[in-house]
Write a structure and sequence with these properties.
This protein has a three-stranded antiparallel beta sheet with strand order 1-2-5. A two-stranded antiparallel sheet has the order 3-4. The chain has two helices and five strands. Helices cover 39% and strands 30% of the residues. By secondary structure, it is an alpha+beta fold.
């Protein structure tokens, strides 16, 4: 009988511990997002060197960062988010797919 009582008592405690762990992990994720939002944005002036129409909805844009020092400084991790903006026209989100040293970067946009 004691074991049944103990099991009934510890069941909710285990659930509470799991909830607390999940909550702590979510807070850590939120803390990382807030850290990222606090980082200064890096902007680079670039020129479109070529555009290739791939489908009715997709174009491949090749861009080149204009300043040589900025070009050398530009780095990213695969999967990292980047925002491309054309002043007066608009902006488009993109993901970086591979880390390479290149004077020209390619972006597939819809």
């Amino acid at each position: 009988m004691f074991l049944v009582y103990l099991t009934m008592l510890l069941g909710p405690v285990a659930t509470l511990a799991n909830s607390a762990t999940t909550f702590q992990n979510n807070l850590a994720g939120l803390d990382r997002v807030l850290d990222l939002l606090a980082e200064p944005l890096e902007t680079y002036k670039a020129e479109i060197t070529s555009v290739y129409k791939l489908t009715d909805q997709e174009n491949l844009y090749r861009i080149r960062i204009i300043d040589n020092d900025d070009r050398r400084h530009f780095s990213f991790r695969p999967g990292q988010f980047i925002m491309l903006e054309l002043p007066g026209i608009g902006h488009a989100p993109a993901l970086m797919s591979e880390d390479q040293i290149a004077a020209v970067r390619e972006f597939l946009l819809r």
